[in-house]
Amino acid sequence: MLVKGVERYFEKNGKKTLLLTAEEIHDQNRQPQKNHTLVIGADVELSSHATDPQKLIDEVTKHDGVSFLAHPHEYDLPMFHEPDISWVSWDVEGYTGIELWNGFSEFKTYARTFPKAVFYAFFPEFMAHSPHPQTLQKWDELLTTGKKIYAVGGSDAHALDFQKAFFRKTVLPYDFHFSAINNHLLVQNELSGDLDIDSRQVYSALQNGCSFIGYDLPSSTRGFQFTLENEDRVAQIGESIQLVQGGTIRIHTPSRADIEIIHNNHVIQFSENTSVVVKNVTGPGYYRVQCKIDFLGQKRGWIYSNPIFCGK
Questions:
Q1: Residue 115 is part of which domain span?
Q2: Residue 205 gets which letter from DSSP?
């Protein structure tokens, strides 16, 4: 159900937060559940099209919204009565992108036994590793076909109340979720405080892939930069550029990390424990960046950029 009329700015302790609402739609009569779709910015109730994913995506586009295929790959979690709600209708077209990294799906991946569930309930900071490998692989497969498919991250926050005998715990509370997997949007102008103007900027950034996913718990990802420059201009994340005589990729991370450049589903550059990478490139297709960082004794996914697209 789309909740309307609550979008506004909240202000507390001198800081402002913009609240925008959207809807997650799926066929509630289908068992088991599949094909959850994140619908953002359409501003109309579209759940009547839930039984037909392609029709739903078409209607989202018709109403100037954006659509992301939610938690494409995940597992069930019987102890919490949570089914596997992966995406299955991969023949659909015209969607904006996919939810590359879902926090609650990752909990379902690693909390396979009661002891592990208890451990991650008390120490959720140990849980996040990276997006699901199948989802990363699927994203690259889609991009390699020439489609512009953008990625977002999501907490999928539920703050589950778990109780067994005398043991009771809120699993993955909201304050944890919102400090972990976040979307960092690159907007044209600084947010003004005007709801209409700012919401359009947010929706535009999502629609055009002008964003990156940051796991901000180990270290803030704010300030990450990834550009591709040719002889005429500099392309930002989500943009397209021509490489007639080649170009130069420039990457800057706010902390040292292991940085990979992926071109057409192949790692073409791996730089270890650095914050700056410069690489000359010539090939058409897409380029994206992913970074890992040391946190709690192991390498963990930290930054996943949307692509820059290149033609000849």
A1: 1-179
A2: H
